[in-house]
Design a protein that fits this description.
Layout lengths: L4 E10 L2 E10 L2 E7 L2 E8 L4 H11 L9 E6 L13 E6 L14 E3 L31 H13 L2 H6 L3 E7 L4 E7 L2 H14 L8 E5 L5 H9 L4 E4 L5 H10 L2 E7 L2 E6 L13
Parallel strand pairs: 3-6, 4-7, 10-11, 11-12
Antiparallel strand pairs: 1-2, 3-4, 5-6, 8-9, 8-10, 12-13
Helix pairs in contact: 1-4, 4-5, 5-6
């Protein structure tokens, strides 16, 4: 696995001082995902948990539905100028009977750390259908549980503490217990790693769970949650209009601006319990 952080020289400026010093940066490197030896996607990511990333990506892009759909995932053909493996090419072998992704332009993926759908060549390739609709999930969460999630997520961001440059996503139980937290330079990669973990650990569909993300809630992140059967997606920042529309039509509870003891519920408010009212 590649390094998560690197040291680089910077010039530190204040109102009355200039001083050179080292700074710690989050690593951003490409990974090429192949299926059956054929290139499918290139994404810019933070090295680490690449197997989870591959499983989560394939799940949320509708290529696979279960962990048994993948036979092997191995690093290959990725050497630097000294002949060392860079671990930047991952080849996935699908199980017999699992359809290989189309070689057409609709699956010409190039994903940056800020956008995971860049490179999809048609609108039809953007919107996917899920086998794990969250609409019937009966989970109900207390506001106090949701209010505690941002701090729980932040407390698990170990690399962010040294770099300040990573997004995070975490999967939590209905009572706020963390199941897994992952960091990455790309918010969509962090989510794919979390959902890949869920798939590998028998938690897809992710019934009764909350997916908490450190940034905004985009259409893409809502779609990933829906594809994995997550009933509740919570974000510390704003959702987009299309994210709200997709959440409402998919039966997903979407929470935004989850900070301190306030939040906005944009869809699926029936899953949020009424707060207890103290009586004097």
């Amino acid at each position: 696995m590649g390094r998560l952080t690197v040291r680089r020289p910077v010039l530190r400026l204040t109102a009355d001082r200039r001083s050179p010093q080292p700074d710690t940066l989050a690593v951003e490197e490409p990974i090429e995902l192949r299926v059956g030896g054929r290139a499918l996607a290139v994404t810019m990511r933070t090295p680490g948990h690449d197997i989870e990333l591959a499983h989560g990506f394939l799940l949320t892009e509708g290529v696979i539905d279960s962990v048994g759909d993948v036979v092997t995932a191995r690093y290959c053909d990725s050497l630097d100028e000294t002949g060392r493996n860079t671990y930047n090419v991952l080849d996935v072998a699908l199980a017999p009977g699992v359809a290989t992704p189309s070689a057409g332009v609709e699956r010409s993926f190039y994903t940056t750390s800020s956008c995971g759908v860049c490179g999809k060549a048609s609108l039809d390739a953007v919107r996917l259908r899920s086998l794990f609709s969250p609409a019937s999930d009966p989970v109900v969460l207390s506001p106090s549980t949701l209010f505690a999630l941002p701090d729980a997520l932040r407390g698990a961001q170990r690399v962010f503490d040294t770099t300040g440059g990573l997004h995070a996503a975490g999967l939590f139980t209905a009572d706020g217990r963390p199941l897994v937290v992952r960091e990455d330079v790309g918010r969509h990669n962090a989510v794919d790693k979390v959902l890949g973990w869920a798939l590998l650990n028998g938690r897809v569909p992710a019934e009764g769970c909350v997916l908490m993300v450190s940034g905004r809630a985009s259409f893409e992140l809502v779609q990933k949650a829906v594809m994995a059967g997550v009933p509740v997606l919570a974000a510390v920042s704003a959702p987009s209009s299309l994210a709200v529309d997709l959440a409402a039509e998919s039966g997903l509870t979407l929470v935004g601006f989850l900070r301190g003891e306030t939040m906005n519920v944009y869809a699926g408010a029936e899953r949020i319990a009424e707060p207890a009212i103290a009586h004097g």
